[in-house]
Every structure is written in C-alpha cells, then in structure tokens.
Amino acid sequence: MKAKTIADGILRALAIIAGVVLLGYFLFKISSVLVYISIAAIASLIGRPIVQFLRKKLKFNNTIAVITTMLLLISIIGGIIALFIPLIVQQGHNLSLLDIDQLQINVENLYKEVTQYFGISTYEIESNLKSSTIFSSSDFKFIPDFLNSIVGVLGSLSIGLFSILFITFFFLKDNKLFEDGIMVLVPENKESRLKKSMDTISNLLSRYFVGLVFQILILFIIYTIVLLIFGIENAIVIAFLCALLNLIPYVGPIIGGLLMITLTMTSNLGADFSTVILPKTIYVMIGFTIGQLIDNFFSQPFIFSSSVKSHPLEIFLVIIIGGLLFGVTGMIIAVPGYTAIKVILKEFFAENRIVKSVTKNL
After folding, report:
1. Taking each helix axis from N to C terminus, what angle separates 251-266 and 312-348, rounded to the nearest 10 degrees?
2. How many alpha carbons lie under 13 Å from residue 294 in its C-beta half-sphere?
3. Any idea where the domains of the chain sit in the sequence?
C-alpha cells in the first residue's frame, strides 16, 4: 500500500511537471498574443477616463463613446507614424546616396576636435586611428541595410497594431470582458472580493497610465522648445524619442540624454567644435537637465502619490527589484504590478500586520 502511494505520488508529480512544461510551451508559442492583450489592456485603461467623460458629461451612449475614443487613439498613433515614417524614408534615401568616405572623414574630424579640445595627445589619436577599425568604411555600411530591414518590420507591426486596436475596442466596449475571463478561474466564494480588487486596480492603474501620458507630454514640450531654440534638425522627433525613453525608470533618462548629446553634436558636423558644437551641446543638455528636474520633483511625485499611492522609496526599491529579475521589461511593469499585488493583499490579507503597513494609503 505504501509503495502504491509512493508510485501514485511520483506519477502525480510527473503529471504536474508535464502539465507545467506544456503550459509554459503553449504560453511561449502564443507570447505575441499575450503581448497584444497586455498592450490592449493598458490602452483600454488609458482610454477608460475618456469613455466615462463622454458617457457622463456629453451623454454619449456606450458604443459611440467607445468609437470616439478609439478614433482619438488611432489619430494619436497615426500622428506618431506620420511623424516618423517620412523621416525614416528620407533618411533611407539620403543614406542610399551617402558618400561613406566623406562620412568617415567627418566623424574622424569630430573625434580629433573632441580629443584635442580636452588635451589628448595628437600622436595617440593618429596611432589609434591607424590601428583601429572604428572609422573604417565597413563600419558605416550597415546603416542603409539596417534601415531597409525596418521596412520589413513595419509589415509585422501593422498586423500587431490592428490586433491591439481590435482587442482594445472590445475591452472598452465591454469593460467587464477581461474581468469575466478571470472570474471563470476563481472559486465562487472569492468572486465578490476579487471583483472589488479588480475595480480598485483598474481605477488606480487608469490614473497611473494617464499620468504617464501627461509626464511624457510635459517632457516632450520642454525638449522640443529647447531643441528648436538652438536649431537642432528633426527637433520634434528627437524630443519625442527622448521623452518616450523616460518610460524606462532611471535608465531611460540616461539613454535619452546620451541620444540627445549625440544627435546635437552630429547635426553640426563641419562646424567648429569649440565655438559651435560644444556650446550648443552644453545649452541643450542644460535644457534636458531642467526637464528632468521638473519631471523628478513635480511630475513623478504627483503621479505616484495620486495614482498608485506609494512612497517614492517603495517605488525605487520595486523598480530596482523588477529590473534585477526581468531586466528593462521588469522595470517598466514593476509599478503597475506592485500596485495590483498591494490591492489584492489588502483585500484578502487585510489583518496581516505587514500588509496593513504596506497598504495603509490605499
């Protein structure tokens, strides 16, 4: 009897392991669909306040409110595409006619000016350039090929975009659709408490994502003004990219700053380094720093305190842990994920002292 029990236990364990492996494989194969659903859920949370405003204030019926909201979202996406596609096409055309040898000379000259300005030996520069392949023409020839590959990626992105918009429409039209799908997996005696948790999570995350949109908009306006003042080419696109990178906590602003420095310096190739390139880059970075200070001391505290109701130190630790566990993706989803966990813990483990302490502001 004991041997039979052990055998049954082993078979049960093997069955569980096999089930987990199969489930993991299945989720891996449909990972793109899961990504579409996740993005659609975020888009529906952003669009939800608009739908509610149209229904309550302007007395639209639900379907018309959802259609209007979707048209607004599509217009925003279309505006972003209209902003980038012509730029990519133009740059692809320019690069197809690019004189690689001249580009090599320009970059080498800029490199020499930078190193000479900061007092690095000319002999070291020349020996490094001769022994290194950093500025060889083959290093720059990948650029046209890379831009051509972007065109192929756009085809698959269009399919994903259509899928996301289609799913978002039904999430907005029937805001209980996602909730009902989860309720199927929950015991009946837990349904009411989970429903309450999901309503709270939805409200908090909706405010959070709307706050992020305003955060990006504020940075975009500041960066655009700074870049336009100093005559940087493609100022709107650069400003948008740098503002969008701010969605990646802590790391994103650093990448955005480096991107802005690089594009500012390369937009003035051929000009004198000490009198034109360096001063203009310093002024642009002062504007970038002002934007970051406004974001760190005004935008982010407002978003975190009014939406997810968490202390800045909590947010910092959660983002760091998310980054260590799941990389950049973990840093991005850390705050909404942590917020959802806090709400569920408060609903189901409200008597626990640790839970009380962590969720006292919810």
Report:
1. 140
2. 17
3. 1-98+153-175
Q: Which pLDDT tens digit goes with each residue over 208-250?
A: 888 888 888 899 999 999 988 888 877 888 888 888 888 887 7
Amino acid code (one letter) for 346: K
Q: How far is CA 238 from the centre of its chain?
A: 16
357 vs 212: CA distance, rounded Å: 27
Angstrom distance (rounded) from CA 295 to CA 287: 12
Rank 19-33, 258-272, 277-291, 336-350 by mean pLDDT and report only the highest.
277-291
| Residue 15 per-residue DSSP state | H
* SS3 call for 359: coil
The answer to whether 237 touches 224, Cβ cutoff 8 Å, is: no
Q: How far apart are CA 189 and CA 38, in angstroms?
A: 27
Rounded to two decimals, the pTM is: 0.64
Burial of 52 (0-12, 13-18, 19+ CB in 10 A): middle
Residues in contact with 239: Cβ distance below 8 Å, sequence separation at least 6, in sequence order: 219, 220, 223, 224, 226, 227
pLDDT band for position 143 (50/70/90)?
very low
Whether residue 277 contacts residue 265, with contact meaning beta carbons closer than 8 Å, is answered with yes
